[in-house]
Specification:
This protein has 5 helices and 4 strands. It has 131 residues and is an alpha+beta fold. The structure holds zinc ion. Zinc ion (ZN) binds next to helix 2.
Length: 131
């Protein structure tokens, strides 16, 4: 029953703006559009449930955002997988930025709940810049 231990766990998944990474952060997303060149690149995967089906056309349009963004429907109805590259100082910031994309462009997913998220650092050779 220690608030302190709970908050330290939350801190581990908080972005630099103090938001929970899985809740997303629009500021982190906007920062990722103009990243610190020293930031490593991350491969991020975010699973989320949407309250309505996302049209196939919208799933395809996500690719136009660049940075290898893809939005796919693995198999279960209303469960989606958003993947993409994100420049960030740590995994929490990378995830917050990718979820922040869904927050900022609400016409993509509408209301959603993130169920799982992962970020792994990309080797520099794979972190190719946007075309
Ligand atoms: Zn943030």
């Amino acid at each position: 029953m220690s608030d302190r231990s709970m908050s330290s766990e939350a801190d581990a998944w908080a972005c630099p703006h103090g938001r929970n990474a899985r809740s997303g952060c629009v500021t982190c997303y906007e920062d990722s559009l103009d990243p610190d060149p020293a930031s490593p690149m991350w491969q991020v995967a975010v699973w989320f449930t949407a309250t309505r089906a996302i049209p196939v056309r919208t799933l395809k349009e996500v690719r136009r955002h660049g940075r290898q963004f893809t939005l796919a429907q693995p198999s279960t109805p209303l469960v989606y997988l958003l993947t993409g590259h994100a420049p960030a100082h740590d995994a929490a910031q990378a995830i917050a930025g990718v979820v922040g994309f869904l927050l900022r462009d609400q016409q993509v997913a509408g209301t959603f709940t993130v169920t799982d998220a992962r970020a792994v650092p990309l080797p520099p050779a794979l972190a190719s810049p946007d075309r």
